[in-house]
Amino acid sequence: MEKCLFVAETDGENAVSHVWFYSGEGNPRLVQRTDVTSQRITGAEFAGAPAEMIAAWLRRFANLP
């Protein structure tokens, strides 16, 4: 699977509020449910917040276990 980057935006309490997705093709964009898979999360790079916080947000967003 291609390497991807998930970049978090946080709110005033440092909680993840939005996540941007970049896969090396095109421009970064707001993440969509179809971008989030367990395999992508495992191999991804993270920025903007701790990786664990971003991964948890992504799992909730995409309804992954």
TrEMBL record:
<protein>
    <submittedName>
        <fullName>Uncharacterized protein</fullName>
    </submittedName>
</protein>
